[in-house]
Every structure is written in structure tokens, then in C-alpha cells.
Amino acid sequence: xxxxxxxxxxxxxxxxxxxxxxxxxxxxxxxxxxxxxxxxxxxxxxxxxxxxxxxxxxxxxxxxxxxxxxxxxxxxxxxxxxxxxxxxxxxxxxxxxxxxxxxxxxxxxxxxxxxxxxxxxxxxxxxxxxxxxxxxxxxxxxxxxxxxxxxxxxxxxxxxxxxxxxxxxxxxxxxxxxxxxxxxxxxxxxxxxxxxxxxxxxxxxxxxxxxxxxxxxxxxxxxxxxxxxxxxxxxxxxxxxxxxxxxxxxxxxxxxxxxxxxxxxxxxxxxxxxxxxxxxxxxxxxxxxxxxxxxxxxxxxxxxxxxxxxxxxxxxxxxxxxxxxxxxxxxxxxxxxxxxxxxxxxxxxxxxxxxxxxxxxxxxxxxxxxxxxxxxxxxxxxxxxxxxxxxxxxxxxxxxxxxxxxxxxxxxxxxxxxxxxxxxxxxxxxxxxxxxxxxxxxxxxxxxxxxxxxxxxxxxxxxxxxxxxxxxxxxxxxxxxxxxxxxxxxxxxxxxxxxxxxxxxxxxxxxxxxxxxxxxxxxxxxxxxxxxxxxxxxxxxxxxxxxxxxxxxxxxxxxxxxxxxxxxxxxxxxxxxxxxxxxxxxxxxxxxxxxxxxxxxxxxxxxxxxxxxxxxxxxxxxxxxxxxxxxxxxxxxxxxxxxxxxxxxxxxxxxxxxxxxxxxxxxxxxxxxxxxxxxxxxxxxxxxxxxxxxxxxxxxxxxxxxxxxxxxxxxxx
Length: 717
Ligand code: GLA
Known about the structure:
By secondary structure, this protein is of the alpha+beta class. The chain has 3 domains: 12-302, Beta-galactosidase, Chain A, domain 5; 313-613, Aldolase class I (TIM Barrel, Alpha-Beta Barrel); 615-716, Immunoglobulin-like, CATH 2.60.40.1180.
């Protein structure tokens, strides 16, 4: 043992004299954070700092003995989880990465790109670490490119997008898990030594059981406004993995990227393997600050048309399911108008003739209008909508097929399925092989064809109602381990083509509820369906969970008949995001209708505050039997507060909610809106308060009646 130790010391001493590069520091910075790398005496690249912005970038000698390799390799001296693992074409399983060069360029006053080139001294393999730093939003993206010039392909087994190191006495991981109709359940636990993995292996969707987002709090659990943490997420619409490893020195490495499960990749000479971005932000002021960073980043960079407005809508899924005809739909167009909504969204069931889509067992893949239900086609409905000055949108699920369909009969080889085993169904359907360019064309032509034939078509709901099982691509032949990665890239290829031709058609991302949302997909989509569960009590928790990572304008919430709560409660819950309705409007009584019409008007008047305001979570439903949150406009002149009472226990008391984000020196008028006709209000007329009062003394905003809610408008005088 002693001998080995001496040898290590000796070799370290030798390297000191070899290097001329050991003074190089590479900072990746935003307004409030620094991530700093240093080239070591051994030529390797180390992460030496990640945290609050330093007043000055220190002299490199301040970091004398870096220990955390920036991108840990495999096969030489690493004894823990690697970020990258490669087998060379001669079977050699080792990789070392030495610093070669780096380059920093500003693309505009807010965005700086940094590229760090690393190379194996023995093999012609290069890894480039890419960083994009968004100064104002304090968000960074990291992704990696792997390329080689070996004579034959190399096999890449692990290819993380990012590796971050932390040194703290304790680490707390907040994760979000669930299932269909119970998405985004929040759990927080201390990380102990060893490995904790959050991942998915669903193939065609990022999540269902685990969502690709997390908070990692350092030292102690973080609160809404206190504590040091990072928030992280992966921009990838398939299998993901976040791996947290606490080593024997209590150091933590966080490895994020595509899930390497069953996905070794044969990389041809000269071709690049490019990983998706890991998106992360650091906060020294709790989860609220981190999520506001992510919201701003998302609106400016992360989601399609994040700075544009969104359409309120009436959807027919829960009112008709598959059972509709032109007459019913025309009546729903009238309801859309009557409610003051922007768009009518025709859901599943409008297509297929040989195997009509009258339930979920047939017709998926046959995208011709069903002649019995829609004898005059979609074009007729688009025109009818136009007559009423409402827009028309439509549901598609282009990546999927029912075995009972003409598409399946014509192209059985377009389906992902094992050749030697029985087909395995989920919702009676199979996944199309989007790796096959012919299938990509089919999906592209479906959407392009519809937009060409019906130029008035103003919206798509793009669904994806299953994951992959028995996964096998006829097209890939002997490269089956590429299937998970190539599928997602095939999907992105189709979406890229569509967005080139139709850059702004709004599209809702849906996946059996909220099973697909991630920032890889959101580059193409304007919004997502958060869950099929629209019971407003459940929904408060689901929307609360999403709100940490996704801005309100992207989270679609519909008022439906799930749950027995009042229409007001359901509407107030839907209103805290992108509001829509999916309910029998003709069954509303007079007061309910009047209330909804007024709520839609209020929503339109105040949607800029909800969509673009800063979100402050004041009382968590995980801590009390109520939830209170508010949005504050960037200029602090308007705010909107939502309070929901889910339950009240005997003797339970709800304290004043202390508001946040206002200007302490200004005076604000406070008034309740969305009042149900004939009911009492907490603030029926305007009352004036200073920002200071509202933020320190607070307001009584919560009713003591279970299943009630209030929406309070706060306006600077
Ligand atoms: C999924 C969606 C629903 C609806 C149905 C239609 O379950 O989540 O909103 O569109 O598909 O089949």
C-alpha cells in the first residue's frame, strides 16, 4: 500500500513540471453564477467551482489541487460512475481526456457559448464540452459532442450531457414522480452514500413514472425563499437518466443525460454524437428563485413562441369522447363563441373509415375524415368556426397505429415490434418506427397535408398515448441498440421540418396526459397537457409540481367535470395556467354561465400577468390544507393571487398570506375578482394597502370553507 502511495505522489510531482497549461481557468458565467474549470498539471480538465458569482475570477493558483474531473472517463483510473465510456475499434476499453483548447463567443449581449475541446492522448477520440450561459436568466445549458477518427466505428456506452460536482455536508434531492393521472408528485430525501438514479426507459416519451426534473439542495433542505440548490432538467423526449453518486469523501457527482440503458451507440469515424442539453440553474435563495430563472429562460429561449400569447379554448374530449357528428360539433362552436373563448379543439375520433375511430381500438393511423361523422370534412368545420369568429384546432396522434387500421395493413414493417414475439399493446396501439425516413415523411405529410388543405387550421394537439415495449426496428437491422436514441432524433427531424414550414402554428404536446413534457420537445410546442386528471384538488398538486420547472403559459389546464367541486373552484384552478374548458357548456345554469364568461374576460384581461409574471408560491399544499400563490408583473404594477382551500381540520387556522414580489414603497388596490354571482367576497371593493403592509403583515385570503377559492387582483395606484 505504502509503495503505491509513493508512486502516485511521484507521478504527480513529475506532471507539475510537464505542464505549461496549468494556469488556464475557464469560467462559464451568468450574472449571478460562476462555473469554473481549470486545466490541471496533468493536462486534464477539472471543475473547481460552481456557485454564486465571484467578484473577481480568482488567480488559477487559488485552486491548487483540483480533484473533480470535468468529464470523467472510464477504463483507466476512475473508480466511480463515468460520464463517458467508449470501446475503441480494436477492443481497447479505455479513454483519457486531456485539455486541447477552448473558445468563448458571445452570440449577443445575453448569451455566451463556451466550447472546451478534450482529446485522448492515445486514440483519435475527441470530446467537446459545450456550454451556453444565459446571463440575465442565470441559466446554463451543457451538452457534449463526441467524435473520432479511428479506422472503424467505436462503441459509445455512456455519453452524459453533463457532470457536475458538489461538496457539501448534506445533499437533499427533490424528485417528481407519478403515473397516468397522478403526475408530478413531489418527494424530498437526503442522498446517502452510493448511487441514486432517476430515470425512464419508456422510449417514446420522457416520463410517466419519473419526470426529468429535479432540485438538489445543498447543506440543508431548501425552502421557497431560502437555501442553496440547483434545479436541473434534460431537453430530451426519450429515456433520461440523472445519477447522483455520493462517494467516500462525501463528494457528490451528478451525471445527467440520455439513459444509457440498452443504448450503446456505434459511432462511425468522422461522425459526431451530440447529446441533448442539460439545463440548470443555481439559486442561493431557494426554489422560488430557481424556478423564476427557469421560467424566464423558457419564455425567452426554451419553448416555442414563449413571448407570444396563447389561445383559450373549448375542447370536446370529455363532453363527447368519440361520439359526435357535425351537428354536435357545430353546437360546440356556438358554445366556444358564447363563452368568449378563442378556439375550438376537436379531439380524437374524427378520422378513419374502413376501421372507424369510434373507440380506441381501431382506426389510429388512418387520417382521413370519417364520412359518417363528418360528411363535409374538416374543411366544413373550419369554415363554420370562421363564421363564428373562432379558431379551429384538431387532435392528432401521428406516431402511433392501431393494428386494426389500413395503415397497419399496408405497412406492417413501419411498426416497432419484435419479429419473434406476440405484439404487445398499450391502449390497443403500437408505435410507428420514426427512425425509418418513410415513416418520418408519412408523419410530416400528414400535418403538412392538413395545413395545406385547411389553411384556417389554427392549432394541433399532438398526442402520444403509449411507451415502447417489445422494441425492435426492422429498419435498424443489426443496430437495435440505437433505437431509443434514433427514435427521438427521428421525431425531432419531423418537427424541425414542420417548424421550418410552419414556424408559428400553436401545438399542444400531449402524452396520455402529461407524460412527455421536456425542454427538447418544448422547442417545437407552445404548451403541454399536464395530466388527464382534471379533478381540481388533484390538479392543484399537479400544477404546483409543474410550476417549478415550466412557466404558466405552457401548462394547459381545462375546466372539466372531473371532481364534484363548484364551477368556480374548477375555473379558478384552471386559471393559474393556460386556461381552457372541456365541459358541457349547455348544462351550465345561468349563474354558472355568467360566472364562466366573466372569468374568461378576466383571464384575457390578466393573462399577461399570469403568463409573464414572476411566480411566488406563498403557501404550499404539501404543508397546509390550502395553496396560495401569486404572479407579479415584471414592472410590479399588477399582481394576481390565487388561494384554494382544499380542506379544513377541526381547529385549524389559516394565517395571513404574506405577499411577495411587490414594491414595498407603492400603494396597491386589492380587490377580489371571479366572484360567483350572489356570493360573499373577502374584498368586494377596492381596498388600499402599501406593498410593505402586504408583504409583511399580509392578507387574509383563504376561506375556511373546504373546496372554495379566491382570486385577488392587486393593482399599483
Ligand atoms: C389522451 C389525452 C386526452 C385525449 C385522449 C384522446 O388520453 O391525454 O386528452 O386527447 O388521448 O384519445
